[in-house]
Amino acid sequence: MSKSPILALLLTLTLIQSMAGCATAAIKADDGQKKLAELSGLAGTSWVLDRYGDLVALTAVLDGTRITLRWNENADAVRGNASCNTYGGAASIQGALITIGGIYHTEMASINPEVMAQEAVYLALLSQVRSWDVVGDILTTTCVGGEVLVYNRDNNISAVPLANLASTNWKLDSFGAGEVVSSVIIGTSITLFFSEDTARVSGMCGVNGYSGECYIDDAEIKVSGIICTMMFSDDPPGLWSQENNFIDLLGKAESFRVFNHTLTIYCQNGAFLVFTVV
Fold first, then answer.
1. Residues 125-136, buried b or exposed e (16+ Cβ, 10 A)?
2. Which of helix, strand or coil describes residue 46?
3. Long-range contacts at 131-139 (CB < 8 A, ≥ 24 apart)
4. Domain, as residue range, for 261
5. d(Cα 154, Cα 45) in Å, to the nearest integer?
6. Do residues 134 and 142 touch, judged by C-beta distance below 8 A?
7. What gap in Å lies between CA 274 and CA 175, rounded to an integer?
8. Whether residue 149 sits in one domain with residue 238
9. 97-111 per-position pLDDT tens digit
10. Contact of 246 with 142, CB cutoff 8 Å
11. Domain containing 189 — which CATH number?
12. What are phi and psi of 176, to 5 degrees?
């Protein structure tokens, strides 16, 4: 009978050690994922496509267009501009092997059919990428069929304090809710400027100028008392609706995140606004 308390104590100690081991393993796995992202050399980097297609007869990106590829801090997601539309997707890296899947994109159209053709080819090749290599400032990804995407490192992004929006200026890139994403109408511009004390925001929302009070606490953001000028235009078509949607979403802002010079404001009901630094 005297052995029962000792046995119970041993079982308890064994259970505690087992739980501690599981917790340590989870921490090591998380650290391992972060280390893998760091070692990949792609985490947090930005690239601009230079050429693509058959390795022996590469096609240059069309003049006046810009195709970008941006990696998040864990190198497990990408986003960018495909020519006309913005896109995003999930990524998986294992050594020199890579896959990019679940690609989604906005549904804007260009009046130039060559731009749309280039975009379609790019997104198709991106989904077929299987390996990668970085030499200096050049990233080359190789697809299943042997085609390649050749990028130059994007060195033209201004540095922005990640935890401080004071005196920063942003341009709206896309907006939406859930998996529905819309690009800003071609030829229009929506901007967001934070005052020196971040107590106010202002900018252009398409046709009109606007301003409002801003409250920031850690990752929380609230914009209230928004006022706008009273001009009207719907040229190009959809401009007026876009402007109203932006002001509505800005007034419903709840939190924000800045990464890789991209500001994402998360709004009520799963909506969001995505800006790039100016």
1. bbeebeebebee
2. strand
3. 131/96, 131/97, 131/98, 132/42, 132/93, 132/96, 132/98, 133/96, 134/41, 134/42, 139/42, 139/45, 139/47, 139/69
4. 169-277
5. 8
6. no
7. 6
8. no
9. 999 999 988 776 777
10. no
11. 2.40.128.270
12. 165, -160
Task: Give the least confident one: 23-27, 184-188, 226-230, 271-275.
Answer: 23-27
Residue that the structure tokens 């505690």 belong to: 16
CA 130/CA 149 separation, integer angstroms: 11
Same structural domain, 273 and 173: yes
Do 138 and 219 fall into the same domain?
A: no
Sign of CA dihedral 220, 224, 229, 235: positive
Taking each continuous run of H as one helix and of E as one strand, the counts in the chain are 3, 18
CA distance 177 to 69: 22
Q: Is the pTM of this model over 0.85?
A: no
Contact 206, 243 (CB under 8 A): yes
Place of tokens 């997707």: 89
Q: How far apart are CA 38 and CA 161, in angstroms?
A: 21
- What residues are paired with 274 via a beta bridge? 174, 264
Q: Give yes or no for a cis peptide into 236 (omega within 30° of 0).
A: yes
Cα(223)–Cα(193) distance, integer angstroms: 12
Q: Are 68 and 46 in contact (CB under 8 A)?
A: yes
Close Cβ partners of 31 (under 8 Å, ≥ 6 residues apart): none
Label residue 270 exposed, middle or buried (CB < 10 Å: 0-12, 13-18, 19+). Answer: exposed
The pLDDT of residue 174 is: 93
Compute CA 133 distance to the chain's CA centroid, rounded to the nearest angstrom. 22
Residue type, 60: A
